[in-house]
Amino acid sequence: MHNEETYDAAIIGGGLGGLTLAIKLAQKGKKVILLEKETYPFHKVCGEYISLESWQFIESCGIPLTSLNLPLITQLKISAPNGYTLKQSLDLGGFGIARFTLDQLLFEEAVKVGVKALQNTKVKHVTFNGNQFEINSDKGNFKSHYAFGAYGKKSNLDLQLNRKFTQEIKQGKQNYIGVKYHINIDFPDNYIALHNFKDGYCGISKIDQNNYCLCYLTTQENLSKHGNQIKAMEEAVLFKNPHLKQIFSTASMRFQKPLVISQIRFEPKPLIEQHIIMLGDAAGLIAPLCGNGMSMAMRAADIISKLFPDNAADENSRHQFETLYRQAWNKNFATRLLVGRIFQKLFGSTQITWLIIAMLKPFPWLLRKIISLTHGKRF
Ligand SMILES: Cc1cc2nc3c(=O)[nH]c(=O)nc-3n(C[C@H](O)[C@H](O)[C@H](O)COP(=O)(O)OP(=O)(O)OC[C@H]3O[C@@H](n4cnc5c(N)ncnc54)[C@H](O)[C@@H]3O)c2cc1C
After folding, report:
1. Residue 52 — φ and ψ, nearest 5°?
2. Is the CB of 325 under 6 A from ligand 1?
3. CA 153 to ligand 1 center in whole angstroms
4. Does 234 contact ligand 1 (Cβ within 6 A)?
5. pLDDT in tens, 7-34
6. What structural domains and CATH numbers belong to the chain?
7. Which atom in ligand 1 lies closest to the alpha carbon of residue 294?
8. Per-residue pLDDT for 214 more than 90?
9. Which of 22, 132, 133, 164 is deepest in the core (most CB within 10 A)?
10. How many other C-beta atoms lie within 10 A of the C-beta of residue 323?
11. CB of 156 sitting under 6 A from ligand 1
């Protein structure tokens, strides 16, 4: 099927980056198409703790967060693999909401503000012919002046675009897996806990519907060592941390099976590929340890919507738009990603994790400083 209409913007991927960008551009009167391969609502591997920096932005996208009665998270608890604990109040803090809920609300809002939002639509190819994009999807072909890659941490499109890091994936350098459960448990509403274990860490905090999100990251190697059995790995490795053993043994699980994703990687990625502008995880994934990837994806959407050319058909504005976005992205995110990468490496080792936590305990100001380096101001 060929569609003769030319959109101002085609957004590939309807996670938080893609959906909020679509809404913001549509609010400015732009003609927007968004293509998402899944069907809403659906679950995603994510810790579902959102930094308060993006509260106003989400509300400005039409989501009445205040009326959703969401848990506000003001305290952090970190434990080393041996259970040694540090507690700290959070300067900015965050709130909890399931992606199942939030992405669905944003999708409905996108439709309401006039975005042509196609679900169950996988983009297979994107080509730039000199002044516009041809988007080839399993619901037909679409044309647009601008194309945005909001397709998350890994996608068939990375291979199609032959992005540099896809070569390294083939060489099998360090890969991580993410595992998520929704649980019921007796746990304080205003806490996020980050419990470390050998080669990984597990976050737990309250979300909507009186549920808690329990989500952890570890290496593929860790899973392989336990016969690719999640349960066996949890019992042998995670349960060595007494906090995790207690959580797993007292929680009632809301999913039959955990949600699992693989091939998570944290290396830098090019921001613009063949004029496709990347945002969110497609532009660079921050270690979940820093707890801020969702706000980063939305902040990038905010930046793009403010820089987007008045006349998308004017080919002369492309160069300036790309330059300004690159500058703004580096200013906002380059340091955060670097700090995230350093901590991701440090938090693998049992001894080093314990040492860092023990060293930080008497210096709460230092931990606050580190947290602030991975977070931005409210927008
Ligand atoms: C284990 C783990 C825990 C995390 N915990 C937190 C946390 O607590 N707080 C936080 O702020 N961040 C957290 N993050 C990071 C956060 O989940 C991401 O940074 C955030 O979801 C990025 O949003 P996005 O819009 O870029 O991508 P996504 O939300 O991943 O959305 C991408 C979308 O693109 C779609 N897509 C992919 N390919 C195609 C295609 N070819 N065609 C059409 N659609 C496509 C996908 O289906 C998906 O819906 C965590 C990450 C991990 C791995």
Report:
1. -65, -10
2. no
3. 6
4. no
5. 999 999 999 999 999 999 999 999 999 9
6. 2-73+95-171+265-350 (3.50.50.60)
7. 11
8. yes
9. 22
10. 12
11. yes
